[in-house]
UniProtKB/TrEMBL annotation:
The keyword Glycosyltransferase does not apply. CDD domains: Sigma70_r4 (cd06171). It holds the Pfam family Sigma70_r3. Keywords: DNA-binding, Sigma factor, Transcription, Transcription regulation. Transmembrane segments: none annotated. This is SigB/SigF/SigG family RNA polymerase sigma factor.
Amino acid sequence: MTDTMEYIRRAHQGDKEARDALVTENMGLIWSIVRRFAGRGYELEDLFQIGSIGLMKAIDKFDLSMDVKLSTYAVPMITGEIRRFLRDDGMIKVSRPLKELAAKTGAARERLEFSLGREPTIEELAREVGASREEVAASLEAGAEVESIYRPVGRDDENGGCLMDRIAEKNSENDRVLNRMVLTALLKDLGEQEQQIILKRYFENKTQTVIASELGISQVQVSRLEKKILRQLRERMLE
């Protein structure tokens, strides 16, 4: 950890060798994230290059005063860089059968909510549409509106600015202090469960299914809460 901090300090001072050493040291981290995007219609080597850009941004923006590992800080930035690439290159690819299942699942969810008087579980949705739990969960993810802290916070932001960029931005000491205050204020207004969803989803990089299991709720509930929370955070950020 001490060596890593020293390399980061040297990289901030313009030492290219130190920066390259940090990238080499974290290549395994980049690949572990890239593999999650396999099957999206892109070569993994191309996504690795995009992920490397995210890592270099994390190195350049890393605040040495933070009590956090570089790898922990870099995960959301690497993931965000890949997601932005997939989004800007025509949105993450979703197969036609998955889109059709997403439509069927959405209609089934509305019917079941009306008849049951509550939100249906994944199992109930799977029985209703005649698909497996895994297929239904995937269709819900595919059919969900793209709500993310990596989504631009302004319509006219030509530089692709997003909530995560604003939070992680490192221009000066005053900016760093302000960013911490903003993030703390945004999360403070959330309930305990909502905070857990955001922290687990974007800082621990867990899937909605895993989070649902840990919190004792359905994946559908996690998906809906996540979208609702991120909409609120973006609105607060714009204010």
